[in-house]
Amino acid sequence: MLNRTTLRRHADLVDRMANAQGIDLEEQMLRGHLSTSELEDAVLRCTGCSKPCDCDDWLSRQGDNADAAPSYCRNGALFAGLKQG
Question: Are 40 and 15 in contact (CB under 8 A)?
């Protein structure tokens, strides 16, 4: 079972990864492009990642200037779809 600390860490990673690509998840939800359950699924997918430390490092280097998520990101397709509209 996942603990609260793990879920919070990965929720933060999902949000930071989206922000790095210029995606505002809250705005996507308000516009109906992302549901609450889709966001929850994204966080759960992230918890299955074996590279959260690599993700932290990647995000630190990218800032807010990423064109796409790294190849190992389990939510890369979700983010690409949100960027395309």
Answer: no
**Long-range contact list for 73-78, CB < 8 A, 24+ apart?**
73/17, 73/49, 74/45, 74/46, 74/48, 74/49, 75/14, 75/17, 75/42, 75/45, 75/46, 78/38, 78/42
CA angle 75, 13, 68 (to 5 degrees): 45
- pLDDT tens for the 85 residues of the chain, in order: 789 999 999 999 999 999 999 999 999 999 999 999 999 999 999 999 998 999 999 999 988 889 999 999 999 999 999 999 8
